[in-house]
Design a protein that fits this description.
Length: about 110
């Protein structure tokens, strides 16, 4: 997958080695650490798609099992874990399923 530095309107699945490049090129990026077998993660998919379509944040997903070192680096000990990056730095972490409004409010809090 070619890494894009323009605004994305869909959820992008990354490998662990790509995360730093993408979050550094995004003013606000929300990363979901997930696993394929996680039911809650599957239920989050339409929420993440909606956020990608109508917020300015870059929405990313990283498979914990394929990128264990990256997951550990960012404290993703359970699935799903959401990490919000602002100007390339992690600023907030949420564990477990979240509702769409909670994630929208979190993104809006850092969109100035």
């Amino acid at each position: 997958m070619a890494t894009q530095t323009t605004e994305m309107d869909s959820v992008v699945s990354l490998g662990g080695d790509e995360i730093e490049t993408v979050v550094e090129n995004s003013s606000v990026a929300l990363v979901e650490f997930y696993t394929e077998w996680c039911g809650t993660c599957k239920r989050m998919e339409p929420v993440l798609e909606a956020l990608a379509e109508d917020t300015d944040a870059t929405i990313l997903t990283i498979d914990i099992e394929s990128n264990l070192e990256t997951a550990i680096e960012f404290g993703a000990q359970s699935a799903p874990t959401f990490v919000l990056f602002v100007d390339g730095q992690p600023v907030k972490q949420l564990r477990g399923g979240q509702n769409e409004q909670t994630l929208r409010d979190l993104i809006a809090q850092y969109r100035d």
